[in-house]
Automatic annotation (TrEMBL):
This is Pre-rRNA-processing protein TSR2. Residues 140-201 are annotated as: Disordered. Belongs to the TSR2 family. One of its GO terms (molecular function) is ribosome binding. InterPro entries: Pre-rRNA_process_TSR2. One of its GO terms (cellular component) is nucleus. The lineage of its organism: Eukaryota, Fungi, Dikarya, Ascomycota, Saccharomycotina. Residues 156-190 have a biased composition (Acidic residues).
Length: 201
């Protein structure tokens, strides 16, 4: 990635001690942009989908977005620092070393997002968010299909459903027997049947 300068940086201006935006909308758009950039990182998505970080892998991804956002609470941030933060987080939280330039690409994207938001240009953030929401809606549709018909184990859900349905029926049958015990039972010929002992099950 020769076209990405790891030393590229942004610095707080006008005597400010932080890169945080004073305008709430700008700050919100920037934080959304960071989240979308982190969610765009394929290596991290693979780690989350395979639960390399344990059961709370998805929460760890959000935590990584948070620590990147916190970097901009300082007066100066460069692309290299963002890249290192991403790489260290992958090792610490997912026990995974990324040996390509993917983290550098995401770090550069985050830097671009910051500069655009500083100019109140939110087009890139909105585009990333729209792509992400579209991707999520497609996943939900696919999940619905999988839930309704699981090709790997088609009988499992059916069996559990049958068991759930049979249990109330058994109770109803017992209740019916109890009700019948309380009154006489007439056979087909019109004679009353002796039912002593039926109470003892």
């Amino acid at each position: 990635m020769s076209n990405i300068d790891a030393a590229d940086y942004v610095e707080a201006e006008n005597g400010s001690k932080t890169l945080r935006f004073g305008d709430e909308k700008q700050q919100a758009k920037f934080e959304l942009g960071v989240c979308m950039a982190v969610y765009k990182w394929d290596e991290l998505n693979t780690a989350v989908e395979n639960s390399w970080g344990g059961a709370n892998s998805a929460e760890k991804r959000d935590w990584i977005s948070g620590i990147v956002i916190e970097l901009f609470e300082e007066k100066l941030v460069d692309v290299g620092l963002i890249e290192e933060t991403l790489l260290y987080a992958m090792v610490d939280e997912f026990d995974t070393e990324v040996d390509n330039d993917s983290a550098l690409i995401i770090a550069d994207l985050i830097m671009r997002i910051y500069r655009l938001v500083a100019q109140r240009d939110y087009a890139l953030v909105d585009e990333l968010y729209q792509k992400w929401t579209h991707k999520q809606s497609l996943k939900q549709q696919q999940n619905k299909v999988v839930v309704s018909a699981d090709p790997n184990n088609p009988d499992a859900s059916d069996e559990s459903d049958d068991e759930d349905e049979e249990a109330p029926q058994l109770v109803e049958e017992n209740d019916m027997d109890m009700e019948e015990d309380n009154g006489p039972i007439i056979d087909d010929d019109g004679f009353q049947m002796v039912q002593k002992g039926r109470r003892h099950r």
